[in-house]
Amino acid sequence: MHASQGRSAGLGLALASAFAFGGSGVAAKPLIEAGLDPLHVVWLRVAGAALVMLPVAWRHRDLLRRKPGLLLGFGLLAVAGVQAFYFASISRIPVGVALLIEYLAPALVLGWVRFVQRRPVTRAAALGVVLAVGGLACVVQVWSGLSFDLLGLLLALAAACCQVGYFVLSDQGSDEAEPADPLGVIAYGLLIGALVLTVVARPWGMDTDVLAGTADLDGTSVPAWLLLGWIILIATVLAYVTGVVSVRRLSPQVAGVVACLEAVVATVLAWVLLGEHLEAPQLIGGALVLVGAFIAQSTAPKPASEGPVAGSDGGGGGGAPVAGHGEAKEELSGGRPS
Description:
The chain has 16 helices and three strands. With about 350 residues, the chain is mostly helical. It has a two-stranded antiparallel ribbon.
C-alpha cells in the first residue's frame, strides 16, 4: 500500500511539473510581444528562480568543489542554452511548434549514443526517430515550403541540441558512491545560467516600463508582473522541484512519458490563451513527434546505473529534458527546462 501511495504521489508531481513547464511559453510570449527582448525574459526567469533557490545552493555548496564541470555544463546547456534558444524561437513561431521541435531531443540523443559513444541502438529506437522526424515534417508543413519562419525553426532546433546536453549530463556521476544531489545541481545550474545570461542579455538595457504595464493575452490585458511571477515561481521553480521529486518515486521511463505531456499542455494553452490555431496535419504531426520521442527515449541504451543527474534513491532523468526544455522537464533524464 505504501509503495502504491508513493507511486501515485510521484505521478501527481510529474503531472504538476509537466503542466507547470508547459505554461512557460504562453506566459512569456505576451511579455515579448509587449516589448521585452526574448533574452531579457529569459534572464528575468532564470535570475528570479536562482534567487529563490539560493538557500538550496548554500546548503549544497560542497558541489562547487566536487562537481564544478557538471554544474558548469548544466548551467550553460540545460539552463542558459535551452531557455535562450526556446524563448527566442517562440518570438518568431508558435509556442506549440517550438516545443514540439525541442522534443526531437530524445531522437538526437540516439545520434549521440550511436555515433559518439559508438553504442548500438534498437530498431524500435530507430523507429522512434523516423516517427519524430516525420511528425516534425507535418508540423512545419514541408510540402508548403516551410510555412514558418526559418530562423525561428533553427532556434527551436538549437534548443533541442542544448537539450541533448541536458540528457547526456543527466547520467554523469549517478553511479558514484557520493552522487550530487539533484536539487543542488538545479540550484547551481540556475545560478550559473543567470551569470552567463547576464553577460549575454545585458539586462541593464531592458525596458523595465514593460513590467509596470500590461501585456495582451489574446485580447485580454494582464499585468506584466503577474505573468513574470508565473514564469519564475510556477514555470521554473515549482516545475523543476516537482519534476525532481517525482523522479525519486517513478522510474525514468514513466516520468519521461509524463514529461511528454508538456508539449501537449503548451500547444493547448497556446491555442486557448494565445489563439495559435494549428491545422489537422500539424496536430497529427505533433502526436507523431511525441510518440517518436517517447519510443526513442524509452528504448535507448542506458548505462548500468539508471539515475537522474544526482542519483536519487528511488527513481532512475530534460527534460529534458528535460528534460525539455526540459527543459528535471522535468526529471533529470527525461524532461525540458522550457
